[in-house]
Amino acid sequence: MEESQHEELEEVDMQENNKLSGFDFWRGALNSARYVVAPMVDASELAWRMLSRRYGAQLCYTPMFHSSVFVRDPNYRKEAMQTCPEDRPLIVQFCANDPDTFLKAAQYVEGICDAVDLNLGCPQTIAKRGHYGAFLEDEWDLLKKMVGLCHQKLRVPITCKIRVFESKEKTVLYAQMLEKAGCQLLTVHGRTKEQKGRFTGLADWDIIKLVRESVSIPVFANGNIQYLPDVERCIEETGVQGVMSAEGNLHNPALFTGDDLPVWRMAEDYLELADKYPCPLSYARGHMFKMFHHSLNVHPDIRDIIAVGKTLECFRLATLKLKERCLADAEKYKENPELFSTDLPLPYWICQPYVRPDPYNEDKTKEKKTMKRPLEEKLKSPEFAGLSKNKVKKLLRNPLKRLGRSSEENYDKCVACPNIRGRKCTYMMCKNCCKEKTFREILDCKGHRIVLHTKNSSKAAFDQKIKEMEERTSENGTQGTVTGNACLDKTQEPTRGTVTGNACLDKTQEPTQGTVTGNACLGMTQEPTQGLCGDQEDRLSPECQTVNSEEKMDSSCDVVCDSRNITLMSRTITVAEDTSFKEGMG
């Protein structure tokens, strides 16, 4: 009976964890997506994904997240993984080199995405140092474990993005290994990990086609996608299910629509979405530079506005200025297109891709070296003679800025060492030397706020005051001094001198002539106190009232004596302690 129940529970778990795979996953969860926005670090954030979806993208990837940081840092998870209900279908990409860590990171997001992707295509140096991305392509055993574990444990499919090898045969075996491990969709970038930066070159669609024919799961192609016709041509030539775009999408978010839209419209739409879905300002600045790439070559002053902008409003200002100039140039273009003849296929104010120059073409390289940028021309002017490029840039941005090429020479040196001295130092020294001198010789330095001499003098004065008080007390002891807690009995003679501390005088005690300090209690039959109140010899003010021993005292009677309160409450006289000495020392 128990065994049958256990089998039923296992069947229920299998049904709950049942997930789509292969082409069913592509058709069902991904809606047969053909136009795909690539995972781009610091670029494919939520605002950009929503802009791309607005202009034809059918599937988006998040930026690549570092799995180990994603697991251990909740702040990183909160800031990095941002999405909304309209941001679907969505695939979250991680880089990883440990199966358990990759699984934990993926489990954090499996409820808010349609699949989890393993990055095996990043060719950057940081990936080499971190041992992830394309630099895991030869560690097949590790890749089998990572893909296999996520395939078994996750509720969503696992996908992979790879680069090709120089060998077509090895690339095919690589793809088949990942499929066997549990990969449900494969994105193939038709370049090797050495093809990057200036040496990017063209992607090899033939290898992508060979991979597509060798596996039974959906394949996306990546590389050489700049215009919508490139998308259709790639699908036709390779037979892939979809095409992924990265740089082409960054320069033209409307790539998948095929429309030739002006750059300012794309910027305005993006800034609107950036307000709705906030992102780091550096992301927005990067997008502005990409979209305005060709326009900034014509209007370089707009570049400075974007470069130093601290808010999205600065980017809106740059967009507005560029829009005004582009509209004016567009009117001129209608009248005489030859005024804007360039190597670009479209006018500079239209979104279009950036084509890297061929590094192996010596003529273009020489021509590029001879081109003078405005900054290089300004460096030759006498006004900026001897200044570095960075200082010239700062002066151009803020002409009132005081750089001072010889600013260090304006500071005086410490008399004891080569460091710069404190401007207000009494001894013309730096802080460390001044500390050594003042601590050694017990001195003050107003400039460095050192008051050793003052503190020691105050302490010496305080100690001297205490000593004088002790000597005065000892001298007056022979005349009858009561200190501490003292009780005078009924037969005790009147005390002539000083009563300090807590003193209790009995009912039959004669009047105390002298000084009463601290808390003193006089009985009902006590004669009026004649003498002084307090430590100092202050006479009773005329307001003091005499109380006869035979008269009945009112319990609510108050007697005020000088600055001290003598309160007769419930047959008790209380004298507050004299704090004049403490106040003087303070």
Give me a quick take on this structure:
With 586 residues, the chain is an alpha/beta fold.
Distance between the termini: 89 Å
Structural class: alpha/beta
Overall average residue pLDDT: 79
Rg calculated over all Cα atoms:
44 Å
Bin the strand percentage: 5-15%
Count of discrete alpha- or pi-helical segments spanning 4 or more residues: 23
- Kindly report the spatial arrangement of strands forming the biggest sheet: 1-2-4-5-6-7-8-9
Question: What form results from the Cα inertia axes?
Answer: extended
Largest sheet: 8 strands, parallel, barrel
Low-confidence stretches: 1-16, 362-372, 480-586
Summarize the amount of helix as a percent range.
Answer: 40-55%
Q: What is the number of beta strands?
A: 21
